[in-house]
């Protein structure tokens, strides 16, 4: 069975075949976003959107993006909760998730996915979730698991097209690991996981493009002393790790430059200033999933295609919970590799 990353490769081949010189200009931001939604759709609900394969749009990603914007607005303007006209959750999204719950229950089919885990918990009277709680949990996974990974991978691709020497080094590592002229050796996660430069590139991408640009917040239940600060109970503390991640005090004069070498084994990293997935007991629950998805996406793209910067792209960013390009669009040129 074709994996979702292989579907990306096939889709890019199809686009290139349409080009007169065997290459194609593709909106890589859009494709990687679609891939991320395809993946979380499978992992969360066992639903195949197949957006990368078919090229069709699905209303769901748009609906998730709308809900993130509205979550940001409701957080900054709590008065909106009291105005019935404003809906915090897009009804389409809510109904989609409730539909998936009902379908799973009535079909009797068991799948190894997040929805199944949540439904199984209904058998445990100590942790039983209501359908409404399952709906909310599922939507968090959907929102937290799609834009985050998709945008991080896309930002890293943008870094790579701006830094051809890093791109060449990563491609060499992939070629050495998957040396198959016919393109038939499967690119597995086990192999990707052990690649020092691939991991370094992704760490550097996350350092420069943290998805939570404004940091994460915590509220102590009791009075608390943090270093030199006495924090009364209920103080809102913002841990500003995004700024720490580009602070020259920790990362040196080239703190704002894309330099994956700093994450290679043997290099000393300021671990106190690097928290892409946050820290403590409430850190990102999906980080292993995210790592797997990002490694496989980059490895498939770069092992099979040459990618090239196209001048004139709008790289301005905006944040609504996660950080994204203002235009949600980024064109690159792709050309199939022949070795
Ligand atoms: C590059 C990708 C990702 C990054 C950088 C990222 C980062 C984060 C961060 C910074 C938090 C906040 C934690 C805190 O409050 O301390 C978080 C929470 C969360 N993430 Fe991720 N995440 C990513 C991918 C994912 C994926 C793929 C999933 C699901 C499969 C996921 C599910 C969640 C959930 C459910 C939470 C809330 C955890 C809680 O409140 O206990 N994330 N993530």
UniProtKB/TrEMBL annotation:
Keywords: Heme, Iron, Metal-binding, Monooxygenase, Oxidoreductase
Residues annotated to bind heme: 284
Cofactor: heme
Transmembrane segments: none
Pfam family, one: p450
InterPro entries: Cyt_P450, Cyt_P450_CS, Cyt_P450_E_grp-I, Cyt_P450_sf, Cytochrome_P450_monoxygenase
PANTHER family tied to this protein: CYTOCHROME P450, CYTOCHROME P450 12A4, MITOCHONDRIAL-RELATED
Protein's name in the database: Cytochrome P450
Source organism per UniProt: Jimgerdemannia flammicorona
Organism placement in taxonomy: Eukaryota, Fungi, Fungi incertae sedis, Mucoromycota, Mucoromycotina
